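Let's do one together. I've listed all components of the complex below, 232 residues spread over two lines.
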Amino acid sequence: QSALTQPPSASGSPGQSVTISCTGTSSDVGGYNYVSWYQQHPGKAPKLIIYEVSKRPSGVPDRFSGSKSGNTASLTVSGLQAEDEADYYCSSYAGGNNLVVFGGGTKLTVL
Amino acid sequence: EVQLVESGGGLVQPGRSLRLSCAASGFNFDDFAMHWVRQAPGKALEWVSGISWNGGITDYADSVKGRFTISRDNAKNSLYLQMNSLRTEDTALYYCAKDWYSSSWYWFDPWGQGTLVTVSS
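Okay, and this is what the predicted structure of the assembly comes out as:
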């Protein structure tokens, strides 16, 4: 069982927006602004798409955005495209015994 | 171009040992912390271990503490994971990942392609 809770699936049609939630506790998501999001296509390594809650690495389209409220972080994908179909994982620094925790992953389907 | 190439995976019996390696290139290896993250088949990502730029700080997930040891050789641009007392639940694809900082465990980019470890009798 993962430390952070994500919905197992999400979907949207091309051009639509979809938001994926990531719920933790005050010991991880709520306690630090060290939330990140990773995109993983089938058979590929994860790729960092959001760091420090809402920042995008160079090369990541601005269709991807992140936010946080309390113990819940969110990833929004706007203007959905076919290539956005992938698994998405949130992660947070936790500061305890397990210093980094991940969510269970959300499979995003573009209808 | 930053490259991380893992090796050393394979089939091993429960209770035995295995050593993973990660060869890094394309960046100043000794400026950055490094991590191992694993993914069991069809499952989520799980952080396993991290090591600071000079090896002075190491941390482990509770699930591997006391059994796994992370290390690095900056002269060889290489990261290692010594895995002892392996269990069936350690079966996973093990990724090597670069941290953005020298001694923090915040976010990882990029990742290698992974090396598969299968623990089975």
